[in-house]
């Protein structure tokens, strides 16, 4: 009788331990990896958003304005003033470089100064299916103009100067179902400046590490044929914590520089904090409420020494701890054909 009791006690104990172990495994999986990726089979939901297009002028400053400001500010040395202003305008990722000393202009004024020196240009958007204009934003590669972007508005220094932090009504993006239309297309015509073209998700931005870049010279035309792969999260995903789903929605920003979130914005903010750590200041092209010191010529030359580390956010095999999650909704864009020639 005693042996029988021990036998049943042992197996009941094993069963309880097994149930407890299985429950803990299920709970751990729910906490750490509760989501799944599946293929959308309902063709009625195959709506795809056209990628955003960002145009970043290669000429960073209007030379007439550069000479006007140089005559006013650097009255004793016009040549030095022109050199400094052009060096400042071109000091962007990944083109950090040495910059001459300057004591005439406060670093906190660099952003406003470069906005006044920017190159203005006209353009035509023929047959656009939605009402849109090119939206200005200040990025790590300089001032850019974006189309079909939800993010560009929040990168406009004029929005920063107004202390704006509220979300605006989303832009009506260009999108379509591949079963309804053969292709989605957009044209930007009659631009009288040379520029770099960047393709990216409409809920992403251009940053110093962006590599989908195509240079277009003056009086050149370029045709880009692209494919896109859309990944979106269902409404049920929002009920999970960020740590559970390992992604953030655009309106779930935890950034101090932007009311909206994207992976590259998070990387940019990480780069900003690394700049502060390495050289005690931040570059002029970040949103700054006055909390951090803006780099002057000494700080910019210091950052130039760490260019690779700042761009890659890595030192050797050690990654910087940025704590950046991917976007919950994003469109992966790649180019299948590039045609370029004289206009």
What key attributes describe this structure?
alpha+beta; globular; 343 residues; 9 helices; five-stranded antiparallel β-sheet; single chain; two-stranded antiparallel ribbon
Number of helices: 9
**Hey, roughly how much beta strand do the residues contain?**
15-25%
Helix content: 25-40%
Instruction: Spell the H/E element sequence.
Output: HEEHHHEEHEEEEHEHHHEEEE
Mean pLDDT: 85
**Strand order in the largest sheet:** 3-4-2-6-7
Sketch the major β-sheet.
Answer: 5 strands, antiparallel
Number of domains: 1
The gist of it:
With 343 residues, the protein is an alpha+beta fold. It has helices spanning 2-32, 63-73, 78-89, 110-117, 157-161, 242-245, 263-279, 297-305, 307-312, and strands at residues 48-49, 52-57, 135-139, 142-147, 175-176, 195-200, 213-216, 220-231, 247-248, 314-315, 318-319, 326-327, 330-342.
Question: Mind explaining what this structure looks like?
Answer:
This protein is of the alpha+beta class. The protein has one domain. Helices cover 30% and strands 19% of the residues. It is built from nine helices and 13 strands. The protein has a five-stranded antiparallel beta sheet with strand order 3-4-2-6-7, with no helix packed on it. The protein has a two-stranded antiparallel ribbon with strand order 1-5. Strands 8-13 form a two-stranded antiparallel ribbon. Strand 10 and strand 11 form a beta hairpin. Helix 2 crosses helix 3. One of its GO terms (cellular component) is plasma membrane. Keywords: Ion channel, Ion transport, Membrane, Signal, Sodium, Sodium channel, Sodium transport, Transmembrane, Transmembrane helix, Transport. Belongs to the amiloride-sensitive sodium channel (TC 1.A.6) family. It is found in: Membrane. InterPro entries: ENaC.
């Amino acid at each position: 009788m005693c042996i029988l009791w021990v036998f049943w006690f042992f197996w009941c104990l094993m069963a309880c331990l097994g149930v407890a172990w299985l429950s803990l495994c299920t709970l751990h999986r729910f906490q750490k990896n509760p989501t799944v990726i599946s293929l959308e089979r309902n063709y009625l939901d195959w709506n795809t958003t056209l990628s955003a297009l960002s145009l970043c002028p290669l000429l960073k400053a209007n030379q007439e304005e550069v000479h006007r400001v140089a005559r006013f500010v650097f009255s004793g040395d016009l040549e030095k003033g022109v050199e400094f202003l052009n060096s400042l305008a071109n000091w962007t990722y990944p083109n950090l470089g040495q910059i001459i000393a300057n004591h005439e202009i406060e670093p906190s004024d660099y952003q406003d100064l470069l906005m006044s020196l920017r190159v203005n240009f006209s353009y035509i958007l023929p047959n656009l299916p939605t009402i849109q204009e090119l939206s200005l934003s200040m990025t790590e590669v300089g001032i850019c103009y974006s189309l079909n972007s939800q993010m560009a508005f929040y990168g406009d220094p004029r929005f920063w100067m107004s202390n704006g932090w509220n979300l605006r009504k989303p832009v009506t993006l260009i999108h379509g179902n591949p079963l309804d239309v053969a292709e989605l297309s957009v044209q930007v015509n009659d631009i009288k400046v040379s520029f770099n073209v960047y393709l990216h998700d409409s809920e992403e931005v251009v940053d110093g590490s962006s590599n989908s870049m195509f240079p277009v010279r003056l009086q050149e035309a370029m045709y880009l044929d692209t494919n896109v792969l859309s990944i979106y999260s269902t409404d049920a995903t929002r009920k999970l914590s960020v740590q559970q789903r390992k992604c953030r929605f655009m309106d779930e920003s935890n950034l101090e520089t932007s009311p909206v979130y994207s992976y590259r914005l998070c990387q940019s903010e990480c780069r900003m904090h690394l700049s502060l750590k390495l050289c005690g200041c931040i570059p002029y092209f970040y949103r700054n409420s006055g909390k951090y010191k803006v780099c002057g010529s000494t700080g910019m030359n210091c950052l130039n020494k760490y260019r690779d580390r700042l761009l890659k956010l890595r030192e050797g095999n050690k990654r910087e701890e940025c704590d950046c999650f991917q976007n919950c909704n994003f469109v992966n864009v790649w180019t299948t054909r590039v045609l370029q020639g004289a206009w």
